[in-house]
Queue: 4 jobs
Job 1
Amino acid sequence: MRATSARSFEPYSGSDMVDEKGRYKWDPAPDFPFIIKLLSFSRRQGERPLTWHDYLELFIPLGRRCRLRVGDSVLNLGRGDVLVMDNLKLHCVLDFPEPQSRAIVIRFLPDFVYSFGSFSIDHLFCLPFYHQIEGQPHVLRRTEAATARVHAALGRLLECYFDKAGLPYSQAGTKVFFLEVLYHIARQVRVSEVLHSEYLRQQRRSVQLRKLFDYTSQHSAERITVDQAAAIAGMSRNYFLDAFKAVTGLTWVQYFNQVRLTNGAHLLSETALPIAEIAARVGYADQSYFDRVFRRHFSRTPREVRRENSPIVMPHRARRNVCVESA
């Protein structure tokens, strides 16, 4: 994308940007909760954590190819594709063919676009983020004719956003061009038939589940049953099972195992703790079972991950919480 050709890209930082609850940190300005990050990803960074976050996000890869995990799905993206991130699902960049790859990442809070004081029609701008169907991610492919209009709006957005000399007009223009981007995305993914009341229900459901995500990130080594998880989220068992699957794309058991295994991957790469002790710390009393499920999930054994990532010896400071964002 030509608007980024003369700009510098910062290295993606995953583990360093996680708060005490395991959530990816971003503290936006209250009067302008919006940011564009130009990020570079390197193979030397090792295992990138599965993460989640409160804010909404667009992800646009600039490399030839890029694979992402989002929930239980693996997405193949090409240069210039536009992904509407399903932010509450655990996700991360898996791999890319080049030694380094780059991406544009746009983060914003829903209130930047729509709040309960806005006109009801404004919810259409955020609808693609809240109405996602498992197995059908909202991806605008570069080869689609409509994506050219998104790219044109993105180019104007980037120029205005990085024009710091034009404050406060650059911020006003940023919002105008960002709404244009969202307008073209909303028209392309065509979910406008969803009622405003359903949109608000999805928002409330997401807020309820955040309490459970926070709790899980700090207590993943413990046994948390479906009934306990539903109680933490303040839902009945049956409603919880449906709501959790709709929001995360995973069953509760699948999600909980992903959190535990991600914790294990972090300890393998960041500490020199014995693998048996790591297995116990993340909730697996049987190391052989931990080895099997770890390999099934990451396509590598714990020993292979340890060899690739050259662990730092810091057993007394090893983090035990999962990173629960993105790319």
Job 2
Amino acid sequence: MTAHMASAPALFIGHGSPTNAIEDNRYTRAWRDLAHGFAVPRAILAISAHWYTQGTAVTAMASPRTIHDFGGFPQPLFDVRYPAPGDVSLAQQVRDLLAPVAVSLDESWGLDHGTWSLLIHMYPQAQVPVLQLSIDATQPPLFHYELGKRLRSLRQAGVMIFGNGNVVHNLRLIQWEANAAATPAWATAFNDYVREAVKRGDHAALIDYKAAGDAARMAVPSLEHYLPLLYVAGAAEDDERLAELIDGIELGSISMLSVGAGIRG
């Protein structure tokens, strides 16, 4: 990793289990490789499934804390710290950029596992400043896509737009058994719906995800893990297609599909 680039990518990464932070598997290796596909960004603005709130906020502290927002996992996962710096001036810029949407400058949140479990593989030295933008649970999908469009200009200033979640995410239907049946048809169908919409550059289909019918209802029982994709789609330029980066469905109901714009190989 060498010089900072003038234009940074927009990425949506399927993060899966928190234990990916401390594992070596095909996804974590892909995340490490992905970071070598573009120059180190000046900063990262993360939109995480795990900061799902009422209203919009952006972290605005010099040293965001590492949040262990989970339970029942091995102690080594709780021992992880990701000491990336923040950037208060960039937080203020984000607030101004998203006006007239009211954006509060938050000094209490930090970096949740949706963000640091990925970045610990992509930037293990934690040298890149990281901010998080919350997801307003009171707003419809189009609102989040439009916010992504307003964030486009940050990419030209070297700020990576970094959505993380899972396009298929139904914890109630996880198949824990080692000899579990094949991936359910509804999970494959919705994952394919998103993949094909990405391939076509059909952002309207991503916004209107319910058009996938019963598969959408099963795959997206709540919106927090899906909406980060819409920020990234919105942050892509009009003449820029999102590219499929990684794919796979784990435990029957967790999609690891990842897409991005601005990857130069």
Job 3
Amino acid sequence: MYKIGVMGDRDSILGFKALGIDIFAADDARQARPVLRRLAKENYAVIYISEALAIHMSEEIDLYKDSVTPAVIVFPCKDGQMGLGMSSLKSAVMRAVGADILHT
């Protein structure tokens, strides 16, 4: 069975635990990189990563952008939105559809 995980600073991810999602606290990209690789190997179909981590892990995240699993999804963290999540979503839609249908 596939699982869902979320990575980020503790304050940004703690609420996901109430939804039954596995949480993995990481304060910086150095801590998060090996966790992302492990989750990708351990049947996690969806991995949410806070923008604060993702901004420093673009090369690592790009390794999974064309694979079916895991789907790596960037979300805004407690410090506010940086625009990285929307940017990666637009890029994925462009690859899948071939046009910018999100016009933001």
Job 4
Amino acid sequence: MVKKVKSLGSPYISLALFLKNTFDVVVGVFLFLLIIPILVFIAIVIKLDSSGPVFFMQQRVGIKGKLFSIYKFRTMIVDAVNIGAGLNIVDNDPRITAVGKVLRDWSLDELPQIINIVKGEMSFIGPRPTLQYQVDNYTDHQRKRLNMKPGVTGWAQINGRNNISWEERIELDVWYVDNWSLWLDMKIVLKTPAVVFNKDNIYSNKGVSYDFKGTESDKNKLH
């Protein structure tokens, strides 16, 4: 395990966070310009594959509970939440489009989140951005995961991803916040490719990648 560092308010951590945020924006802008042809290609393929918008936008909870709109490529049919498994996404879910399955398998649906990074709403590394109704059910301890910007990948993603429960994922995120350092981020970056290439952790061992129980009013919160 990584040695626990000083609190997020310490001068050392403040400087390290400044470097992290600067890195996110500078590298984010560079990568966005670099992958524009890829983004355009994926957008065209999505439109050719199925009817509906190219992007899926959804309100998520960011650092300190601030709401923002997350960007993803659409991977499911329109109005998917009212069909089949509802809020749950299961293995071989028929609502996932042909192109959407490929995008999900290789995490390419997350590419538009580089826009969120450039806007300063997300980081490359951090707890995955969550939904408001989940945060409403957090304990004070679990809310500590909101003390860092949400990330495209994070400590919970390289330590089980969807094969562990939400409670376990949140606890890993809290540990990440309590023990954060630039070295820990580097470790996560180095381990992320292996997670992306490991298709076994896309869905949980029950075949469901969304195991948080929502209410009828939460139907528009499918991710």
